[in-house]
Design goal:
heterodimer, A: alpha+beta, two-stranded antiparallel sheet, 11 helices, 20% strand, B: 367 residues, alpha+beta, 2 domains, six-stranded mixed barrel, 12 strands
Chain lengths: 405, 367
């Protein structure tokens, strides 16, 4: 009975802790489907005058970020938190006599990063929520120069394009592979391969902007402080936390010709929602764990209470308090340890089951939880037994024996 | 006689009963807390997503540059937040810099508040007649400070706020809607209309607006709509599953407590049987004891559970952009009470049926 209670309590605690950690992580990944939360643009002397991607600047600027520098983004301290990089180059051209915005982009690019590994990145990775009719352009290699494009939904309707139609751009015929519908201004654009647009516009090796998706920690008051006014210790703590602002700062360090700015609409709200979900899970787990501890505590207390008679006999036959405490303590510790181990293992499995059924991913809670819960289980069991034991020892054995008879 | 037995039993075994009572009350408390949270979690989570701003846009279709302003009032009739925006090329003069091209954005501040709550603004969030807001890039470019006056084509305006969003607003000068409308020479039209509809009503609102304005295009912001739906659904099912896990485990614990309660009294039951009490009557006796206990535990646990749900709601969701009362669901009492009574009854009957099978003489002999 006592061991069972400890096992149940530990199972609840482990499952809750595991699920709490997992739910936060999964929601963070889920929120990354919102698209980019950082925008990197060239440091510019001129002010962009653009509406919906169409520039009304009297003279075109030649400011840009060198394409060859992009892999450097994956060399910053928080490189593993960067989930997608999508560089783009813009151009305006006439299609059937009407002005349209062309965007050169990576779609599904295999990018070699400085540490020698490769990652898949591009628009498809960054914006997995976009709906595509037809198919995504597959451009894993930079030297594939096929004349393929993807049209935004509004643009496709305007020019009556379907997957498979062809459009003449800069004198070449491009085949439309897919129609993208996003709901935002990308719907009015025509996307082509980045390297192809660079060649057509004579801007080889240049990009105008880089959109970045990064997993971040929600910003708190500390994150909003100006890094220039921090003490060295504070600065270190700030840059060793994946705040959106510290990631932006690190990107500016490796790309000195560029400015990295958080896209507030995504970054701030994403952080807030994530903070709420984490807090919710934390409080539910706290409530459940408190209950589990209370149950274990009370069961242990009754177990000792029931054995007052036995304790009195031991005392009457001359056993010292220390011996009795050691004996009962060892017994309870063993019960706590066995029950705790069984419970922790069961709870660990249970949290795996929760993440499988809610998020459809194979994920296990950190194994560190098991010894942690085990120790807490033994401690709570001992704590529950302590008070009634002290009381039993302080009473006259004769009185207990008479009452118990 | 019957109630004397019941009351007597309660008095006699106070400690054992207190334990069973506490166990059941804790189970009822957890059940109440997680179920009230669960019943309200979707609404709470969706409210969090409101701060993302618009999830629907009415945009010009084909070669048109504008949408009718009438779309705003039509959308408002559907009980959603809607606001018109204008984007036009204006000219700005600041000190020695004269007549530079800038993007002038017109915002209807009286309507757009909830749609632009994510803007980070230094100074005022809104501009009235003769005032404007400057994007942070624009402000840095022209070295504009708060309270400075700049001159647009339509006359001077005082900069009341510096806006920073990381988006297009950073390089715009933002003026009240009417002024931008006059500067762009628009009549009852806007560049686009942004709409925030509650996630679950999104398809319905989109369809209604598409029907009403075939000359414009109603776009759903896919990334936002889809993420909202996914996150809300997943958090909801995580809370549900965790609730089920917690409940199963506490139920197991409580069942054990109640069986003990009956088994402990096998001697007493033996005596009752030996002096000729009918089995049905003994069962009624045991059951009514358990149920009285369970009902008391359900009430106590329910009250405590509501308090916990309230506390969680208050701690996590109270500082939202739009504060609404923290949802505490009183309707969960019936299922919680039923569950508690059922656990108590099943545990009691299961334990009692074990005693039935034994001869009274055997129990009384103490084997």
């Amino acid at each position: 009975m006592a061991m069972g209670a400890v096992a149940l309590g530990s199972a609840v605690a482990t499952a809750m802790l595991g699920a709490m950690l997992e739910v936060g992580d999964r929601v963070n990944h889920e929120l990354r489907r919102l698209g980019a939360n950082l925008l990197v643009t060239p440091k510019s002397a001129s002010l962009p005058v653009e509406i919906g991607g169409i520039s009304y600047q009297p003279t075109a600027t030649d400011e840009s970020i060198p394409l060859a520098q992009i892999p450097k983004i994956k060399s910053i301290f928080w490189q593993l938190n960067i989930t997608a990089i999508a560089p783009s180059l813009r151009a305006q051209t006439l299609l059937n006599g009407r002005e349209i915005v062309l965007e050169g982009a990576w779609f599904e690019r295999k990018l070699r990063v400085p540490d020698g590994s490769s990652i898949m990145t591009g628009l498809h990775v960054l914006n997995s929520a976009w709906k595509v009719q037809g198919q995504w352009i597959s451009d894993p290699r930079a030297d594939d120069r096929s004349a393929e494009g993807m049209a935004g939904a509004a643009l496709a309707r305007r020019f009556d394009l379907q997957p498979g139609s062809t459009v003449p751009i800069f004198g070449e015929l491009f085949k439309v592979m897919g129609i993208i519908s996003t709901g935002s201004e990308e719907d009015d654009r025509l996307f082509v391969r980045l390297e192809v647009l660079e060649r057509l516009t004579g801007r080889a090796g240049h990009v105008d902007a880089i959109e970045i998706g990064a997993l971040t920690k929600p910003e708190d008051a500390f994150a909003r402080r100006d890094p220039k006014r921090m003490t060295p210790a504070e600065y270190e703590r700030w840059s060793c936390t994946p705040y959106i602002s510290s990631i932006a700062h690190q990107i500016e360090e490796v790309l000195p010709m560029a400015v990295a700015r958080p896209i507030r609409r995504v970054a701030d709200n994403e952080g807030r929602v994530l903070g709420k979900v984490r807090g919710l899970m934390l409080l539910i787990s706290l409530a459940a764990m408190a209950t589990a501890a209370l149950t274990v505590w009370s069961v242990m207390a009754t177990t000792v209470l029931e054995r007052r008679y036995e304790i009195a006999i031991m005392q009457a036959t001359g056993a010292g308090s220390a011996l009795i405490v050691a004996m009962l303590g060892a017994e309870i510790a063993i019960q706590g340890a066995v029950g705790g181990l069984v419970g922790a293992l069961a709870g660990w499995e249970l949290s795996g089951w929760v993440s499988r059924s809610v998020f459809g991913v194979e994920a296990q809670a950190p194994a560190l939880l098991i010894p942690l819960v085990l120790v807490v289980a033994v401690a709570v069991a001992l704590a529950g037994a302590a008070q009634p034991l002290r009381r039993a020892l302080s009473l006259e054995p004769a009185a207990i024996l008479r009452e118990g008879a | 006689m019957f109630w004397r037995f019941v009351v007597g039993a309660v008095k006699f075994r106070r400690r054992r009963l207190a334990l069973a009572f506490a166990g059941l009350a804790v189970a009822a408390m957890l059940a109440t807390a997680v179920f009230s949270l669960y019943s309200d979690i979707e609404r709470k989570m969706r409210r969090e997503f409101r701060a993302f701003g618009a999830n629907l846009v009415i945009a010009p279709v084909g070669d048109a540059r504008t949408v009718p302003l009438q779309a705003v009032s039509s959308a408002e009739k559907l009980d959603v937040v809607a606001a018109p925006f204008i984007y036009t090329i204006g000219r700005i003069t600041i000190g020695h810099i004269s007549d530079e091209r800038v993007v002038e954005a017109g915002v209807d501040f009286s309507r757009a508040g909830p749609l632009i709550s994510y803007w980070r603004v230094e100074g005022a969030r809104t501009a009235s007649k003769g005032e404007c807001l400057a994007g942070i890039t624009l402000a840095a470019h022209f070295r504009v400070a708060l309270a400075q006056t700049v001159t647009l084509a339509s006359g001077p305006c005082t900069v009341r706020g510096i806006v920073s969003t990381g988006g297009a607003e950073d390089s715009q000068v933002i003026v009240p809607f009417e002024r931008a409308s006059a500067d762009a020479a628009f009549r009852d039209v806007a560049s686009l209309v942004q709409i925030r509809a509650d996630g679950e009503r999104l398809p319905e609102v989109r369809d209604a607006l598409s029907r009403a304005f075939p000359q414009a295009e109603v776009r759903v912001l896919r990334a936002l709509a889809e993420t909202e739906a996914n996150v809300v659904m997943k958090v909801r099912s995580a809370v549900l599953l965790l609730s089920v896990v917690i409940l199963l485990i506490t139920t197991l614990c409580v069942t054990g407590n109640f069986s003990e309660l009956v088994l402990e009294r096998s001697k007493e039951i033996g005596v009752l049987k030996a002096i000729g009490a009918a089995e049905g009557r003994i069962a009624t006796l045991l059951l009514s004891e358990s149920l009285v206990l369970a009902l008391a535990a359900a009430l106590t646990g329910y009250a405590a559970g509501l308090a916990i749900a309230y506390w969680i709601g208050l701690t996590i969701f109270s500082n939202s952009a739009q504060a609404t009362p923290i949802g505490v669901d009183f309707a969960v009492f019936m299922p919680v009470a039923l569950m508690t009574l059922l656990i108590a009854a099943v545990a009691t009957v299961a334990a009692a049926s074990r005693i039935w099978r034994i001869e009274p003489a055997v129990i009384l002999r103490g084997e």
